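Class, carefully examine what follows:
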Amino acid sequence: MASSTHHHLSNPYGGSTAAPPPTPSTQPNPLASPDADVLSLLLHRLPPALSLPTRRSPPSTPTTSPPLVSLSPQNPNSLADLLSAASQLGFFQLTTHSVPSQLAQSAESESLSLFNLSKEQKQLHFPPNWPLGFDCDDEEDENGTNASFCIDSSCSTESTELSLSSLCELTREMEKLGLDVIEALSCAVGFENPVREDPTRVCSLMWVSEGCTGKEPVMSGKFYPYVVGLHYQIRRQRCSLLSDSGWVSVSPRVDSVLVTLGDLAQVWSNGKTKKVRGRPVPSFDDSTKNARCIWMSLLVTLPLESTVSPLIPMVVATNGEDDQAKKEDGGSSEDTMESRVFNSFSFEDYAWRVYHERLLYKDPLDRYRI
């Protein structure tokens, strides 16, 4: 992916930031005290627009099993199952796929070796080139559980000493599967697939992070927009998803691939699909307390220079009459476009904003809805 340089915007939502209203200090306050005066002074020194916490633990919710979807040609209900899961939930699990279990386990071992490097080595081998490279949260604890790597499909690094052959192969296999999902999704939901004619319209990023069991899962932000996200379920483990309906706890089958539909899929489908914001967050219990866990999520996303807009097809308005009959009677059909739910927007600007502002509580697509 191409490198991009941005300047922090003091007010990305537009408009000037109003100063806080003056305090009527001349009015007597029967409850006034030295402590109250100090508190009042601190409160009035705060900025007028407070940012919400950037980190939080997903709330405890009942665990469910994601809908089972098989894209096998032998499954006559594949598109119907996919449409139901996409329109109602925004996530599902693929039980039939071509990704070998051994490959996922080997990629996990290679990923674990990356986290055994010192922080200096991580930064040296994976220099930041947003969104690629090694990233360490400012609130990272001593175990580095808030650190992550983001690599492209080539798994390029600044070192020839690191062996990432399995991780690279897993990235490519998951990418192929992601493209198959997009094709099936476009057929099931009814939007134009831009990848069908030009595969370079999308790109893939593998996000590798580490968790430690026995700790509360943390949603630390670092959202990146995507069309579909894929996570190989190596072992039995729950995870939390931030969906359109709120937090959901799911437990996919072992060796299945958990698929989440992202914000770009929702725009492409003109609002017909639900979405999951960000990547799945692993959930742990005391059964494997203090064990290390590698979490690998592949995101099929867009090049930075892309423009995001609904990919809605042309439809023929026949007013309930047979189009051929209208032509024989001298009439003509009229091509129309269904009403757009979203305005078009720059992917680079959007990706930069949701990644750095870490919008946990507000849907970042709201500003583009018509």
User: Anything to note?
Assistant: Confidence is low (pLDDT under 50) at residues 1-32, 40-54, 140-144. The domain at 63-306 is CATH 2.60.120.330 (Jelly Rolls).
